[in-house]
Amino acid sequence: MAIYLTKESKVLVQGMTGGEGMKHTRRMLAAGTNVVGGVNPRKAGRTVDFDDRAVPVFGSVADGMNATGADVTVVFVPPAFAKAAVVEAADAGIQLAVVITEGIPVHDSVAFTSYAKARGTRVIGPNCPGLITPGQSNAGIIPADITKPGRIGLVSKSGTLTYQLMYELRDIGFSTCVGIGGDPVVGTTHIDCLAAFQDDPDTELIVLIGEIGGDAEERAAAYIRDHVTKTVVGYIAGFTAPEGKTMGHAGAIVSGSSGTAAAKQQALEAVGVGVGSTPTETARLVLDRLGAEA
């Protein structure tokens, strides 16, 4: 089992013929992802060769879905075109849209995440590394060779910290790792992933990675208290961030005590979540919790 993405997923890539799209489509294919087509209205009808795989290019998401049965799209288009790309995918009825693009205006993200949700399309991102179910499928830019299938579910605002925890816990492995993105507005939240991991029988422990800014982690803590029975281990990036400064992601800004790493840690620990002070300590907490459960 896994959440959102499995070996059965059929993946389109919007922007596949661009530089980033080409590079990461090749990596996704190498990871075993069933990439069934690209989308580029100006290159419809062509095929692109990726080593031993020829991938067709369609003029629209709807055309690609009709021809292949695709249920996932990965968006590698410039920021100015991201809103239109997601709206097109939602109008076509795609189940999952993974938006890798960074630098999308917040008002565009508000518009397309709301639009997609109303049409039953789950958006992951924007400004995210995507998600991977190791050994099954990889939709986005997460390295596929740093971990293996296992029993940990991971949800993270940070791409880099996603990779680090995947690597540090590679001997145990992961059910699914989801990079939700760190922008102020994202389509899938910590809470969404917590709910999915709670329902996934193959996920035994959940790792939640947050960062300073906003109140997503505090809301996740309340959800864990009321709905999650599985063990959760957390890490919050930004303990040394200066007050009032934007740090890294567009959503990571602290005002007074609101949004600080300490406040988030306190909220999570109050509901029984072990919170590491570093990624390595977080990994040790996971090992301790799994050892105690064995």
From TrEMBL:
PROSITE patterns: SUCCINYL_COA_LIG_1, SUCCINYL_COA_LIG_2. Pathway: Carbohydrate metabolism; tricarboxylic acid cycle; succinate from succinyl-CoA (ligase route): step 1/1. GO terms for molecular function: succinate-CoA ligase (ADP-forming) activity. InterPro entries: Cit_synth/succinyl-CoA_lig_AS (IPR017440), Citrt_syn/SCS-alpha_CS (IPR033847), CoA-bd (IPR003781), CoA_lig_alpha (IPR005810), NAD(P)-bd_dom_sf (IPR036291), SUCC_ACL_C (IPR005811), Succinyl-CoA_synth-like (IPR016102). Its EC number is 6.2.1.5. It is an enzyme of class 6 (ligase). The active site is at residue 249. It catalyses: GTP + succinate + CoA = succinyl-CoA + GDP + phosphate; succinate + ATP + CoA = succinyl-CoA + ADP + phosphate. Keywords: Ligase, Nucleotide-binding, Tricarboxylic acid cycle. Belongs to the succinate/malate CoA ligase alpha subunit family. This is Succinate--CoA ligase [ADP-forming] subunit alpha. It comes from Streptomyces coerulescens. The lineage of its organism: Bacteria, Bacillati, Actinomycetota, Actinomycetes, Kitasatosporales. The gene is sucD.
